Each structure stands twice: as C-alpha cells, then as structure tokens.
Amino acid sequence: MDRPLGVGTPEQYARLKSANFPAEGGPAIIEIEVPPDIIAVLEADPDSRDSMDSGDTLFDPRVGMPELLAAWPNLIKRVIRI
Amino acid sequence: MTTLTVAERAMELFGQRPTSENRIDWLANQLLDLAAESHFISCRIVPGEGEIATTLECRDSGHAVGLKDVGPLRLFRTLLARFAKMAEEENGTQFNPYGGQLHFNRPISGAPVRLNVEFANTKEIQYLAIVKATRAA
Predict the structure, then answer these.
(1) Which residues of A touch B (CB under 8 A)?
(2) Has residue B60 got a pLDDT over 60?
(3) Upper half-sphere CA count for residue A13 (Cβ side, 13 Å)
(4) Which residue among A56, B13, B81, B124 is least enclosed by CB atoms within 10 Å?
(5) Among partner residues A6, A50, A63, which is closest to B85 by beta-carbon distance?
(6) Is residue A48, in this structure, part of any structural domain at all?
(7) What is the pLDDT of residue B109?
(8) What global pTM score does this model have?
(9) Domain regions of chain B by residue span
(10) What is the ipTM of this complex?
(11) How far is CA B8 from CA B42, B67, B118, in A?
(12) Cβ-nearest to A50 among B70, B75, B85
C-alpha cells in the first residue's frame, strides 16, 4: 500500500519479531493483495483509518477481519524470506 | 468548575481527532507535553476476562482512570510503535516496536525538558510510561 511507514517497515518487524522467537525458522513477510472493497471497510472506520495513516493496517474482529477471512482462500499471497 | 486530573486529561486525548495533522503523531506529542507538565503519565491495556471488558487505563501520580471504548484500545499498539519510530527519527534510538526505553527532548516554557519513555508492545503486555527527567543538555 502507498502509505507512510510511520511505525517502521515490514522488514524491520520481521527481523525483530524473529529475534523474539529464535526457534521459529527466521524472519519472513507474508505479502497479501487485499481487494479495494476490504480496504474500504477499514477506511470507513475512523480509528482504522488513523492507524493506516501511520502505516499500521489493522484487521480486527470488529472491523475488516470477517471480510478478510472470507476472502482469504482467494487472496494472492507471497512469502518473502529475508 | 471541575478540574480534570492528569490521568483524565490523558484519557481524553485518546478520544480527540485533530483535523489538520496525523492523529497518532498528535496524540504522541500531546502525551509528551502532558507528561512534561505533570512529571508522570502511564497508560496500559488491562486485559478483560469473562464478563470483564478489556480496558485502557491511564494513571498519574495519584489517580487512575479506565476506558472500555474499543477505538482507543485499537489505537494503542500503533501509538506505541509510533513512539519507537519517533525516537529513531528524533535522536537515533535503535527502532524496536516491541518495547524498550526511549527519550525525547521538548521545550517547555522556553527550557528544554527530557522525557524518558518506557514501553512494552507485545501480545502479552501493552504499556507506556512517560517520566519527566532532568533538563536536556
């Protein structure tokens, strides 16, 4: 997504998360292509939009997660090992 | 007229939406300013259990207030990560969104003030404490 990375990059999260779990195979990123209609659900929620404006895209059971789970089998996904 | 405690003022900040700037940056800077004025603020997520809802709790040196509104609860982890990134941007502190010790210098009444920040941002614990330290060098 073309959003500012005000809370760090995916690579930074992957490396630091991996450091917290050293027995789990090393850092990796799962990249998913989220359809615009699901992003629109997040953008319609002020708190989700504010988080996205800082670079943090949050799906939770109240906003976006049901739609993401329903679409999950058909989403394009890519695992990036770093 | 009722005077709000510092803890109540901190909690109120979570519900505000500035129109002209990034809300998370605004909130982080407002909390730093409030801590500079009052010496100490802490906020944490208190996990719910059974019938008890998850709560955002803010404290000052003598008071604690809680809020069950889901909006601020959802923003809190983004806010913690943003503090880590702001410290990297402002003074080169190594970025770690999962926790650590940070510092910020802010001018208060014309004099620089150092604010020490300690936070944890993991699945198990989400916590933020801001303490006014000495004058910045």
Answers:
(1) 6-8, 12-13, 16-17, 20, 46-48, 50-51, 53-54, 56, 58, 60, 62-63
(2) yes
(3) 16
(4) B124
(5) A6
(6) yes
(7) 80
(8) 0.91
(9) 6-135
(10) 0.86
(11) 12, 10, 20
(12) B75
